[in-house]
Amino acid sequence: MTQYRGLDKPKGRSFFLFWKAMFVAAMLALVAFFWVASSSVEYIWRWNRVPQYFWVNEAADVRAEAEGDVTIIDRQGNEQRVVVRDASGEEHTHLLPGEGKVLVSSGDFAYRGDVLGRYQLNRPGILLEGLWVTLEVSVLAIIGGIVIGVVTGLCRISINPMLRWGAIAYIEIIRGSPLLVQIFLWYFVVGTLINALLEHVGLGGISPLWYGVMALALFTGAYVAEIVRAGIQSVHRGQMEAARSLGMSYAQAMRKVILPQAFRRIMPPLAGQFISLIKDSSLLGVIAIRELTKATREVVTTSLQPFELWIVCAVLYLVLTFTLSLFVQYLERRAIR
Questions:
Q1: E strands of the chain, at which residues?
Q2: 3-state secondary structure of 81
Q3: What are the residue boundaries of the ABC transmembrane type-1 domain, all occurrences included (predicted)?
Q4: Phi–psi pair at 41, nearest 5 degrees
Q5: What are the 10-residue block averages of pLDDT along the chain, 337 residues in total?
Q6: What is the pTM of this model?
């Protein structure tokens, strides 16, 4: 008869039911703790004000730019036109959306700043805009990090001393300095030099967003390079020898045999690195990029609602990272089949 010890012993249904109940009890206790703690704090919760920072739905006024007579009120396509002629005879055109309401009549006299019309404004709020910037920056940095990491990882195992030493120098420099310092260097040093050069030749400067993306991509690329290097070296060298014996070149064997096996093994650490990248994008607020964290900070400053807004900010980051985690798990299942 087989003897089971420790973790080898089969577990019955009651074992799993008990520990599932313990998990639920722990979650309920955690919720109760935060409920009691928040109730003891002298703070007025205003959750009803949070939606306005996701979507703005408010009345907007169209005001007269100059003092004069209202001469023309007509419709041009999907817009309404109100023309005001000042004392010098110059006409000032004011446009309203088609569904807007004109509050003056032809022949009326309007003073500068008077309301000529009103319409309903519907647009994304500051939190939704910040979430979109975070998503945009993260996707671009992930793509750049993958490209830089794969190329650097291949150079890291190259027999060419120049490529190998260059890859090692890049990896050690990037991993040995804080991301915040690298963002400052990209924005204040590299960005200043490049924009000054572009302005000197008559071209416009590059947006700070792209310097932030480059800082994140290069930072992530260094870690991805080591992950790729470890994944390639984890594949038995007999695979390369077998591929070369079939007549494949080194590049063909790497592309068709080694890398597909390596990528299946490095997906979990890559997912962790990209999740960290999404959270690290919150540092871009220091160079005036209004990503999710900076947008939340601005709203907290004006609304004085730190509890609700920071909780919402954390939940939005959780949605992004959890979605990425599920996507990587889906790719893992597809790769195993």
A1: 55-63, 68-76, 79-86, 91-97, 101-102, 109-110, 115-124
A2: strand
A3: 131-328
A4: -90, 135
A5: 59 85 95 85 83 84 87 83 86 83 85 85 88 94 93 90 93 93 93 88 85 94 92 84 84 83 84 91 90 92 88 93 88 73
A6: 0.80
